[in-house]
Design goal:
- There is one protein chain.
- With 313 residues, the protein is of the alpha+beta class.
- 42% of the residues lie in helices and 23% in strands.
- The protein folds into 2 domains: 194 residues, Sandwich (Jelly Rolls), CATH 2.60.120; 102 residues, Arc Repressor Mutant, subunit A (Orthogonal Bundle).
- Strands 1, 2, 3, 4, 5, 6, 7, 8 and 9 form a 9-stranded antiparallel β-sheet that branches.
- α6 packs parallel to α9 and α7 packs across α8.
- The longest helix is centred in the middle third of the chain and has 22 residues.
Length: 313
């Protein structure tokens, strides 16, 4: 999915509306507002590298708003990183507002409302699956709307790799593209962890449901996980575990299955598993027939299809 869009050739009166429609289609649905009155000349390029999409753009000053109604109507749980190479910007999320100077980067979350202001001759963004980043750095959700400054450890290498990603000419589903995209997420996770430290819940964990959720996210790859093992780990009965998830839309073991499926799919798409068997066992499955059956039901294709699609160039 390599896309190039430009307002060159459009009448000035049409440019902003077309830009808005293009961002809604290829980036995130939201509302926009033109701030600058200068001619609205802008450009967008999109490249796919495995599980990662890389965006290059230039545009006059404008505002982008993704509110709760957009989040509900157009669900997306991807993480994004914005990088202002030339120009300035700002983003507000989770009650924090950061101003981006040239060279700054910032992480933001498509699953939560945010507002951004962009005025840049050259800016970049990367979009990545939520699970891919959380697997590498479980504290990513508390790192949103915090500046990743150029002087921060890891930031220069991350910035350089992002710039390379924006210009690479690679088949989007080739093994090297998958590996490059996965390495980009690895480097982002390392940079965030050096800035924010290992993830710790900043709120006391008094709620049993929250404690079990945290435990499942940390240990779902253990093939012996069951309602009984969850109950033992939290010194409660199986019935209490079941009640903790009642009325929340997903049972404890349904969550375990979903996380295992997401982990196995990410491993296959990003080329981090050399075979279906490796992806299944590393993600907590112990029965390959069961794994293939539930994978196909969840994603509409067999895991071997992904191995074939992401094979050697």
């Amino acid at each position: 999915m390599n896309i190039t869009y430009s307002t060159v050739g459009l009448h000035e009166a049409q440019r902003f509306a077309q830009w808005h429609a293009t961002l809604c289609r290829h980036c995130l649905p939201g509302d926009s507002r033109r701030v600058s009155r200068e001619p609205f000349e802008c450009r967008l390029e999109v490249r796919r590298l495995g599980a990662v999409d890389v965006f290059s753009m230039s545009a006059p000053r404008h505002e982008w708003l993704r509110n709760e109604s957009h989040v509900q109507a157009h669900a997306s749980d991807d993480f994004w990183v914005g990088f202002a190479q030339e120009g300035e910007g700002a983003i507000e999320q989770e009650g924090r507002r950061v101003v981006l100077k040239p060279g700054d980067m910032v992480l933001y979350d498509a699953a939560r409302p945010f507002t951004s202001v962009v005025e840049t001759r050259k800016a970049y963004a990367i979009r990545m699956p939520r699970r891919s980043l959380l697997q590498r750095f479980s504290g990513a959700e508390r790192a949103v709307a915090r500046v990743i400054a150029p002087s921060q450890p890891g930031a220069p290498a991350l910035r350089e790799m992002l710039l390379q990603a924006a210009t690479l000419e690679l088949p989007e589903r080739s093994r090297v593209a998958n590996q490059f995209g996965a390495t980009l997420i690895d480097l982002l996770a390392a940079t965030l962890e050096m800035q924010h430290g290992t993830a710790r819940d900043e709120v006391p964990r008094r709620d049993l449901h929250k404690r079990i959720l945290d435990y499942i996210h940390a240990h779902f790859e253990d093939p012996s996980m069951s309602l009984e093992s969850l109950a033992r780990a939290h010194h409660v009965s199986v019935r209490t575990v079941t009640r903790a998830f009642a009325g929340r839309g997903e049972s404890a073991m349904s969550l375990v299955l979903r996380l295992r499926l997401e982990a196995s799919r990410c491993a296959l798409v990003e080329g981090r598993a050399g075979s279906v068997t490796e992806a299944a066992f590393r993600s907590g499955f112990s029965d390959l027939s069961h794994f293939s059956r539930v994978f196909r039901k969840a994603y509409g294709c067999t895991p071997r299809t992904l191995v074939a699609a992401n094979g050697p160039d």
